[in-house]
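ok here's the first one, seq then struct tokens
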Amino acid sequence: MARVTSGELQREFGRYRTVAQREAVIITNHGRDDLVLLAAAEYARLCRQMQKAFHVSELSDDVVDELGTVGVAESAAKYDHEYEL
């Protein structure tokens, strides 16, 4: 990913617009990451990905491990009978 200050982005917007077509451009403000400039197609792909359902076999080990730590709300106890064999 490219990294650019907000001032440099203003001065050379055309250049970074072209870069953003190939890779994300991180825009910094006072030395901290502030915004990301990316191609509209990449943004659309990320939006579609957020809505995609994954089969458990497609999830990374880290995600599967985290799922094991998720607590169940007490209000869900009324559905416990559905898991009885």
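and now the second one, same deal
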Amino acid sequence: MPQEHPLVYSSHPKPSAPREPEPGGLPPLGQRVNVRRETQGRAGKTVTALWGFQSSDRQLEELARALRKSLGTGGSAKDGRVEIQGDKVQAALAWLEKNGFKPVKAGG
């Protein structure tokens, strides 16, 4: 009969090995990013759309999270675009420039 190991409960688990940093964080700096206000196809609601990022989906989500937090509004990151609720074009341009990107106002 094989020997069974008793269960041991501890409030001090052994420290785990240090993990390598996961790829993520903000997209590489110095990128040209297009920013535009959009209303078409949104039942009259206005969003600020940002696109042209050369980054992973994870990096894009991190950028969207930081931008939403800074602007105090909602939004999402999908299909290589970040969409921020409301007309926040000027604030988004200022935030992107302050954080090392090269924002360009697209459209009229």
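notes on #2: The radius of gyration is 21 Å. The longest strand covers residues 32-38.
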